[in-house]
Amino acid sequence: xxxxxxxxxxxxxxxxxxxxxxxxxxxxxxxxxxxxxxxxxxxxxxxxxxxxxxxxxxxxxxxxxxxxxxxxxxxxxxxxxx
Length: 82
What we know:
By secondary structure, the chain is an all-alpha fold. It has four helices and no strands. The longest helix has 22 residues, at 15-36. The protein is elongated and about 45 Å long.
């Protein structure tokens, strides 16, 4: 396995990384709430699950969309290495 050239830029700028971070937070809250009480989230389980699913789907879409800021970083990196 080899990291992509601009992995640091991707970790800080890619929408997919931010969206998946949101999925991690929501999943963690859901798990923690299960240990405390079902009512602690004050949101219907169906709505919460739908929100988590939509966030995960958005992360997949964001991963394949062109993101100008990431492309610009790659061009700058190529120019610096020459």
